[in-house]
Amino acid sequence: MTKIKLCGMTSEDDIKVINEVLPDYIGFVFANKSKRYISFDIAKLLKSKLDSRVKAVGVFVNEDIENIIYLVKNNIIDIVQLHGNEDDDYINKLRTKINSPIIYAYQIKSKADIKSINKETDFILLDAGAGCGKTFDENLLDGFDREYFLAGGLSIGNVKEKIMKLHPFGVDVSSGIETEGKKDAAKMRKFVSLVREVKNDRY
């Protein structure tokens, strides 16, 4: 079964729907420039109301490592997702401080970007851009056989097709389950339902 990550949760209403549909993961965005940014205190409140079967992923862009450690140690996030220019030294230092899985996000715009995937992290995420809401050229993945989360431009209109064609380990959606910039409960329910309808031959 394809793993499901619904990203950019910002409210208790969002969490109520999450607890109903039970995706594998949700995302809390801690990047200041994002319109889905939430504070550590809000994230703590939301995590306290989250069903324990759903793992919370903290999304960061070149964040101070001490802040990530704080969020992990206080059980506000379960998994770390890096979306910036974090290098091997940064990742290695983080690994010495926490035991949480790490996801590294790559922006895929060319074949060279695929070839540059080399970070030693637990998971990788392939995206068209940092929350740009667009898909990338699927042909770039020809011959690519690593497990990955597929992100960028996913929606209730295309997610089944993407899974059937690309067989990703997981799918990650944010803007595709929103209406006018806010999470849409009906779209969240529909997205999860659609993913679970598809038999992923790899998983």
CATH fold naming: TIM Barrel
Global geometry: globular
What does the radius of gyration come to? 16 Å
CATH domain class name: Alpha Beta
- The total of helices stands at 7
Amount of beta strand: 15-25%
Q: What gap, in angstroms, lies between the N and C termini? A: 5 Å
Output mean pLDDT: 93
Structural class: alpha/beta
Record the strand order, biggest sheet.
1-2-3-4-5-6-7-8
Low-confidence regions:
none
Largest sheet: number of strands, sense, barrel closure: 8 strands, parallel, barrel
| Portion in helices | 25-40%
How many strands appear in the DSSP assignment? Answer: 10
For the record, what is the CATH homologous superfamily label? Aldolase class I
CATH architecture: Alpha-Beta Barrel
How many structural domains can be distinguished in the coordinates? Answer: 1
Any descriptors?
203 residues, alpha/beta, 8-stranded parallel barrel, two-stranded antiparallel ribbon, 7 helices, 32% helix, globular, aromatic amino acid biosynthesis, amino-acid biosynthesis, tryptophan biosynthesis, TrpF_fam
Set down the secondary structure blueprint:
Blueprint: E1 3-7, H1 12-21, E2 25-29, H2 40-48, E3 55-60, H3 65-73, E4 79-82, H4 88-97, E5 102-107, H5 111-115, E6 123-127, E7 149-151, H6 159-166, E8 170-173, E9 178-179, E10 182-183, H7 185-197
Parallel strand pairs: 1-2, 1-8, 2-3, 3-4, 4-5, 5-6, 6-7, 7-8
Antiparallel strand pairs: 9-10
